[in-house]
Amino acid sequence: MNVRSDRFGLWFTLSMAGIAVAAYLVGFVWMPSVQAGAPNLWIALCRAAGLNPQSASAAPAAQSSIPSDVVWTVETRGTVASGDAGRGGALTAPCAGCHGAKGISPSDQFPNLAGQSADAVFKQLHDFHSGKRVSAFMQGIAAVLTEPQMADLAAHFASLPPAPAATSAPPRLVTLGDPARGLPPCAACHGPMGHKAGAPDLAGQKAAYLQAQLEAFAAGTRRNDINQQMREIARELKPDEIAAVAKWYGAPAASAP
Fold it and tell me: For 173-191, what is each residue's pLDDT tens digit?
C-alpha cells in the first residue's frame, strides 16, 4: 500500500513539474517569440513582482528631456546680478568673430548681443554649457566657462548700445497674438510690452537668425525652452507668419562696427 502511494506521489510531483516547465516555456519563450514587442523574461518577471523593469541605462534619457538646467531662483538671479561688465569685456575675444567687437554681428546668421538682457545671455551660455542647446561651436566655447564668467559676459553685452529697432507698425502677432489659436503676443515676453525672465529682447535682432530659430523650435531641433512654450507657439505659426515676425523684429540693414 505504501509502495503504491509513494508511486502515486512521485507521479503527481513529476506531472506538476512537467506542467510548470511547459507553462514556463509557453509563457516566457514561445509567446514572446511570436508576439511583436513582447517583454523579455526580465521585464515580465519585474512586472509580475510589481517592480520597475527599466534599467539604470534609461536614466540619462529621462534627464536629457529636461529643456534647461537654469532655474530662476533667488540664487540664480544673484549670480546674474553679480556679473561685472569690465571682467566680461576681457573674455570676449572668442565672441567677436561671430557677434562683432561691439556685440553687433557682421553676419545675418549670428545674433546681435549688444544691449541684450543679461538674463537671456546667461541662460543661453548655460544651456550651451550643459548641452541643452546644441551648437558644436558654441558648446565648445561655453564648456570652459564658469557660472561667474557667464554672468560677467552677460553683464558686458547688456551694457553695450543695442542695434536700432524697427519703427514700422508691428504685425498683429507681435502686439495681440492670436487668442483663437492660443497664441500670446510676442511682445509680452520679448518686449516692448514686457519681459519674461530669460526671454531675449528681440528688438533689433537679425531677421534671418530669428527666422531660423523659430523654424528650429517648430521642428523640435531646438528644445531649450522651459515648459516648451516656444515649441508650442512656433508649431502653430505658418511659414509666412514666422517670416513676417522675424522681418519686423530684425534690425534695419546697417554695416557692422
Answer: 999 999 999 999 999 999 8
Q: What are phi and psi of 224, to 5 degrees?
A: -95, 25
| Angle formed by the axes of helices 74-81 and 118-130, nearest 10° | 110
142 within domain boundaries: yes
The domain total for the chain is 1
Backbone angles phi, psi at 250, to 5 degrees: -60, 145
Tens of pLDDT, residues 196-240: 888 999 999 999 999 999 999 999 999 999 989 999 999 999 999
222, 140 contact by CB (below 8 A): no
14 assigned to some structural domain: no
Sign of CA dihedral 253, 185, 98, 86: positive
N-terminal to C-terminal alpha carbon distance within the chain: 109
* Residue 36 within any structural domain of the chain: no
Measured between alpha carbons, how far is 116 from 161 in angstroms, rounded to an integer? 9
Lookup: cell for 17:
513539474
Structural domain for 139, as ranges? 74-249
Task: Specify whether the CB–CB gap between 164 and 254 falls below 8 A.
Answer: yes
Cβ–Cβ < 8 Å for 115, 158: yes
Local structure of 25: helix, strand or coil: helix
User: Residue 215, Cβ neighbours under 10 Å: how many?
Assistant: 17
User: Alpha-carbon distance 233 to 181, whole Å?
Assistant: 9
CA distance 159 to 42: 59
